[in-house]
Write a structure and sequence with these properties.
Layout (H helix, E strand, L loop, with lengths): L3 H9 L2 H18 L1 H4 L40 H37 L1 H16 L2 H15 L2 H19 L1 H15 L3 H8 L4 H9 L4 H24 L11 H9 L8 H28 L1 H7 L1
Helix pairs in contact: 2-4, 2-13, 4-5, 4-7, 4-8, 4-11, 4-12, 4-13, 5-8, 6-7, 8-11, 9-10, 11-12, 11-13, 12-13
């Protein structure tokens, strides 16, 4: 098993991992510190002025030094909305992966350890779930939710709904990963010893087998955060994600898309750039973690 010293040595020896880590750290800090460092609070109507709408970036003719990246149609500074929107996208991405992990790890442990008809039933359920598009499921559920409730109620529960829908739709990836790890662990000597001393199945699964299956879970979690963020962005672009007055990166891209061909490219371009950077950094780190934590790949390098 790789040590922390070896892990850090490999990280600082890989320029791609360092670059992706720096980008991710900057974006996370920007999102966390948004209430303190953002030039404007895009949620505070008292700070908005419609006369400031559609201003270009500050270095262009007609720009204002108060708005470094320009403003949108509501007079909100694009830089400020990006800071707050990145935070919402990260909350949805991380929250959805937590839901995926809780469901997937639990069902994967049970399927792999119990075997038999329980394993067959859960894996067929996973097959059915994976045959359905996450985006299709989310579109149907969110469209029904929007039709059933008014805009204010939808705005209040949009984050929660997106986390639950994306999380529930993607649990099979965690379940299959954990199940395959459990099948390789459950017949080892330390598991037999735990059974011999009379530990119940619950303690054997959660206390002994699970800690030895967390390496692939860590890798898939990083990649799934990026996928959840992209799914949320797609839903918001379609008008089924976050409302315009509580922007995520996806809803920011959508709100400015209609202005692209009229010359106000900055309303969509800069949020899209940040979204690409965020997803790319997460995917690169996920790929790097997979390579580092895979024993077969490490043996191949030795």
């Amino acid at each position: 098993m790789i040590t922390w010293q070896g892990f850090l040595k490999r990280f600082f020896g890989d320029p791609v991992a360092i670059g992706a880590g720096i980008v991710l750290l900057v974006l996370v800090l920007m999102a966390v510190l948004a209430p303190l460092i953002a030039p404007q609070n895009p949620y505070d109507l008292l700070q908005l002025d419609i006369m400031d709408s559609e201003m270009p970036p500050s270095w262009k003719p007609g720009g204002d030094e108060r708005f470094l990246l320009g403003t949108d149609a509501q007079g909100r500074g694009v830089l400020s909305t990006i800071m707050y929107g990145t935070g919402i996208s990260l909350i949805i991405g991380i929250g959805a992966v937590v839901v995926q992990a809780v469901l997937g790890i639990t069902l994967g442990l049970i399927a792999g350890y119990k075997g038999g008809w329980i394993d067959s039933f859960l894996m067929r359920l996973a097959d059915i779930q994976m045959s359905l598009s996450t985006l299709m499921i989310a579109i149907i559920v969110l469209a029904l939710f929007q039709a059933a409730f008014d805009a204010n109620i939808y705005a209040d529960y949009a984050i929660f709904m997106l986390i639950i829908i994306i999380g529930v739709a993607e649990w099979p990836k965690f379940a299959r990963t954990v199940r395959s790890s459990v099948l390789g662990e459950k017949n080892k000597e330390y598991v037999d010893a735990a059974r011999v001393i009379g530990l119940p199945a619950r303690k054997v699964m959660w206390g002994h087998i699970l800690p030895n299956t967390l390496t692939p879970v860590l890798v898939i979690s990083t990649i799934q955060v990026a996928e959840a963020i992209m799914t949320e962005a797609a839903l918001s672009f379609l008008g089924l994600g976050m409302p315009v007055d509580r922007p995520s990166l996806g809803s920011l891209i959508r709100s400015g898309f209609e202005f692209v061909f009229s010359g106000q490219y900055w309303i969509t371009f800069y949020p899209a750039l940040v979204l690409i950077a965020l997803v790319l950094a997460l995917n690169l780190l996920g790929d790097w973690l997979r390579d580092v934590l895979n024993p077969k790949l490490r043996r191949g390098e030795d």
